[in-house]
Specification:
A: mainly alpha, about 0% strand, B: two-stranded antiparallel sheet
């Protein structure tokens, strides 16, 4: 912040803060949508040159869509396994990109929160100055030894001080709301990023283990069971993530609707507690499955 | 069987890209130019974002990055193709007038990751498993197809098998004529399955297996392989102990009745081609084979290979790296 904060500049500053806050909400909405897109049960959409129309396209679609390994040959099994591994790789990559985006979002929100704290401190000082002006004006007004003109000036000063005091108080209230909202968004972001990171981390660990055995594909009979196991784990993680993204959507809607409400902090607190409970349940389920 | 992997650095990728470009692979081989482009983008993307782009490793036997690494790279490439032109996370400067080190750092990491993915998205895609089928002729009950199957072996060898073969049409294909692509694919599915499963075998063995398919008559079969690659980072030993050692091998085998006599010009071969051809069943005795190998090699490896070729009386093409 450059220069001293004045009661008159508070309104513009708060509008600017509100704009930034709305931008964060939009960002979170985008990330939630992206998280919701993480799926392992459906084939990954491929690029045009990877899955062209015609022979190749129909062949690859047919191989990918084959529910059971063909008895015609192990090659079909291996190609189906490859397609499934490629799907898992693509989803893991998407998840890890989301982790990076959440990290950027979290740090940005944290920076916003710090700046809001600074604004509050400055707005408080404005409030104090305005209050001092009012007290000084009251003293001046009550001083019978002063001339009528001086008493008029003191009355005007008191009136201006009271107006500034009210402005500063309203600004403080709005700042408190934005602070609570930013804090809530930060908590939600951290909850989501932990879950997405858990998803990506677990998927990457399993893919690492699988890649060590990649050479055995096609010659080791249990290759299919290895991939089956991988898919089951990833689907389970995707399910946990799905719980969180559904929750995050609800948060987004409520945050959007309640940004100007004074009860926002309490509502966010409830939602964040819910998120933490879901995450704990998710972790317990994952632990039970492993 | 566990795969033994050897760590290499980004310099290997640049060298591999140069070697693939210099390889001058023809249509017998998997597309080396697109692989070279991908390897170059891999190295460039690693320079941008080393944490998000796969760490280069090579298979100890092939000396090339294994299939799973190429697959991971292509997954990142695919991700890059889905990225919008600008990041959905606003830049700190757009949101916050106060520069904050932490935000800059996270944002910078994200920007580098996305830039690397976008760079990969511009690279050509490698054909890890692809098939092209062209109909040459259609008769009452069969059709002559040319099938080109490209396949990245788990160890990282890139194999292309080209087959001219008569394939029977049957009731499941839907009639006497091939009308749509699906029919064409279905008609050749058995042959394709078999070749893909056995792509690691020498061409005579592939021919024998193809001949076991009912109604399939092979007229010509070519197997081209990019790899192995011998180099100072690891991979198969060539005998060049210098720090400059590098040799990427491209070998091909062709089986056809049109070849006058079986001949072998592969300086890297460890088996007897004539013996393999002699061992073909009676029905395939009219086939002759030609095997060839060339290499892209560094000066020190070239010198060694030239001596070896002279000792065996072979004329090995060596492209300079």
């Amino acid at each position: 912040m450059t220069g001293p904060l004045t009661p008159q500049s508070l309104s513009a500053l708060l509008d600017e803060e509100q704009r930034r806050h709305d931008a964060w909400l939009q960002t979170i909405r985008g990330l939630v949508d992206a998280s919701r897109g993480l799926r392992l049960s459906t084939p990954v959409k491929r690029g045009v040159d990877d899955d062209p129309p015609g022979v190749l396209g129909s062949l690859r679609r047919r191989l990918r869509g084959r529910p059971k390994p063909s008895v015609a040959g192990r090659r079909s099994t291996e190609d189906a396994l490859r397609a499934r591994i490629e799907t898992a790789l693509a989803e893991t990559k998407k998840a890890s990109l989301l982790v990076d985006r959440f990290a950027a979002l979290r740090d940005g929100l944290f920076a916003d929160l710090e700046r809001l704290h600074e604004h509050v401190a400055q707005a408080n000082s404005v409030d104090v100055v305005a209050g001092q002006e009012v007290v000084a004006a009251r003293v001046g007004e009550g001083d019978l030894s002063r001339s009528e003109r001086e008493r008029d000036q003191a009355r005007q000063q008191r009136s201006r001080g009271e107006r500034d005091q009210q402005l500063a108080q309203r600004a403080l209230e709005r700042l408190a709301v934005l602070q609570a909202s930013a804090r809530g968004l930060l908590d939600v972001t951290e909850t989501l990023s932990v879950d997405v990171a858990s998803f990506a981390g677990a998927a990457e660990r399993q893919l690492d283990a699988l890649s060590a055995r990649a050479r055995a594909l096609g010659v080791v009979e249990d290759a299919a069971s290895v991939v089956d196991e991988l898919e089951r784990s990833l689907l389970s993680l995707a399910g946990s993530l799905d719980d969180v993204t559904v929750f995050a959507s609800a948060v987004h809607e409520r945050v959007s609707a309640q940004t100007s409400d004074t009860g926002l902090a309490q509502a966010l607190e409830t939602l964040v507690q819910g998120a933490l409970a879901r995450r704990a349940a998710s972790a317990a389920r994952e632990q039970a499955q492993s | 069987m566990n795969q033994e992997l050897v760590d290499v650095d980004d310099a290997f990728l640049w060298r591999l890209a140069r070697a693939l470009t210099a390889a001058r692979g023809n249509d017998r081989f998997p597309q080396t130019r697109s692989l070279a482009g991908l390897a170059r983008s891999w190295a460039a993307a690693r320079a941008l974002s080393p944490t998000s782009v796969p760490v280069p490793v090579v298979d100890a036997d092939s000396g090339l990055p294994p299939w799973i690494t190429w697959a991971a790279l292509l997954a990142e490439r695919e991700l890059g193709r889905t990225l919008p032109s600008s990041s959905p996370v606003p830049a700190p400067a757009e949101i916050s007038p106060t520069p904050v080190a932490a935000a800059d750092s996270a944002r910078a990491r994200l920007q580098k990751r996305e830039a690397a993915a976008r760079l990969l998205a511009e690279a050509p895609a490698a054909r890890l498993l692809d098939v092209d089928v062209v109909v040459r002729r259609v008769e009452a009950s069969r059709s002559l197809l040319t099938m080109v199957l490209d396949r990245a072996d788990a160890s990282g060898l890139f194999v292309r098998i080209t087959v001219d073969a008569w394939v029977p049409l049957n009731a499941t294909v839907g009639g006497r004529e091939l009308v749509v692509d699906d029919d064409r694919a279905r008609a050749s599915a058995g042959l394709q399955d078999l070749l893909s499963l056995a792509s690691h075998l020498p061409a005579p063995a592939l021919l024998v297996r193809a001949a076991t398919l009912p109604g399939v008559v092979v007229e010509r079969l070519v197997r081209g392989v990019v790899g192995p690659c011998s180099h100072s980072w690891g991979g198969p030993a060539l005998g060049d102990e210098s720090s400059d050692a590098f040799a990427l091998v491209l070998s091909s085998e062709e089986l056809s009745p049109d070849i006058a006599a079986t001949s072998d010009n592969d300086v890297f071969a460890t088996d007897d081609l004539a013996a393999l051809v002699d061992a073909l069943p009676k029905s395939l005795r009219h086939f002759r084979a030609f095997r060839d190998a060339k290499a892209v090699a560094s000066p020190s490896s070239s010198k060694l290979l030239r001596v070896r070729a002279q000792q065996r009386g072979l004329k090995t093409v060596l492209h300079a790296l």
